[in-house]
Amino acid sequence: MTLEKLPACLAILLLSACRTIDAPVQDGESEGDEGSSGTTGAMSETEGPGTSSSATSSAGTMASTDATTDAATTDDGSSADDTSGVDPDDTGTDPTTTSDGTSGPDTASDSTGAVEPTPCMDSCVALPGGEWQGPVALSIDDAGDPAPGCSDAWGSAVDELFSGLVAPPAQCECSCGDAEDVTCSPTLTLNRKANNGVACGAAATLDSYQLSPGCNPINETDQDTRWDLVVPGPQGGSCDPIGEAMIDPPSFNTRYTMCGESSPAVGECNGGQTCVADTDAPLCVWAEGDVECPGDGFGVKHLVFSPEVEDNRSCTACTCGEPEGSCVTSGVDLYTWEDNNCMPELFSLPTDMPAIGCVTSDFAVFDASYPVAAIPTPQTSCEAGTSSASGDVTTQGPVTVCCNG
Question: Is 203 in contact with 193 (CB distance < 8 Å)?
């Protein structure tokens, strides 16, 4: 092979246009080989003058072998077909690129892409669930003090409940107004009684005279007698009852302010617990009715009620009895002169006959003067009945609040 002709053939091989030419026929080869050699020589002559077929064939073989060897041999001398050092899971992604697109190792997820949970940085609490609601932070204070309200992480007002109901019975009073429509008879009775040493009220009545306003003849000549004036009692009428009920408004001694989380705590807890914000106040759950606390750290029980109540306190009706008292008169005058027609004499003044008591007369009584001004007037009043307290205050609830302290 002529070495000067090698570069041309290599160039042809690199362009995939070089064809392999058989080497010249050697001694001892068959005619068939000569035929092949001749054919090959003819082809080489068409490729260009001065080109040796054997040189071309050798160069093509060498180039082909070199290219194959280079492609199959790695830097460490191992075959390119050896795939033992290749990761079958290698997808071509840069291992320094994280799941969020930033560079560096990805620590936010595991090999399956799941996000690691964030641990609770506040308090983990096992809540009872079921009928129990909450949790809430509880503030207990005197109901007469200003309400504390809710603030910070527990700034959501849930409810205000109370205990220690103060609702004394009603204080009841009953009185009666003035008696009205009471009447007194204008007719008086003048009794003549024996003067025998027996008390006037118990002495025997000898005669009775009905007196009307004006001058009433008596014509009694017996000088040793006693006189008694009888005034009839009041009739009819009534009094208006006046009832008064003094009821203090109901109140409570203790207030329970329930505050929920306004900024819920973030994070996860183990064992089914719930992450809640830290608080110095008791942490509580609640349920309707008077029920047992659920335990699990919520064992301090408070039985509380709504501030709305139903107040049925009152007093029974006030009543008044019939008017009682007397009919009052200024009395009459007794005249001792016959046919005087109740006219006074200069030296014989009339005897005053009062409404109460007996009058002893040493002289005969001929007339009784009954002035119009002496017509009886009632002086009466009514006795008040009794008004009693009744009814009570009914609360709404109860609500059971159970706390951890």
Answer: yes
Q: Name the 3-class secondary structure at 314.
A: strand
Return d(Cα 84, Cα 93) in angstroms, integer.
20
Q: Count, in order, helices (H) and strands (E) of the chain.
A: 3, 24
Q: Which amino acid is at 329?
A: T
Alpha-carbon dihedral 245, 246, 250, 251, rounded to 10 degrees:
180
Per-residue pLDDT reduced to its tens digit, 241-296 = 999 999 999 999 999 999 999 988 889 998 889 999 999 999 999 999 999 999 87
The answer to whether 308 and 385 are in contact (CB under 8 A) is: no
Strands 171-176 and 309-311: unpaired
Report, in this order, helix, strand and coil percent for the chain, each rounded to 5.
15, 35, 50
- Could you give the 3-state DSSP secondary structure of residue 211? strand
C-alpha distance from residue 403 to each of 12, 72, 147 (Å): 95, 78, 20
Residue closest to 122 by CA, chosen among 16, 279, 262:
279
pTM: 0.56
What residues does 302 pair with on adjacent strands?
Answer: 401
The 10s digit of each residue's pLDDT in 305-340 is 999 999 999 999 999 999 999 999 999 999 887 777
CA torsion, points 101, 107, 113, 117, in degrees to nearest 10? -120
Cα distances (angstroms) measured from residue 405 to each of 125, 248, 274, 298, 395: 13, 35, 18, 8, 26
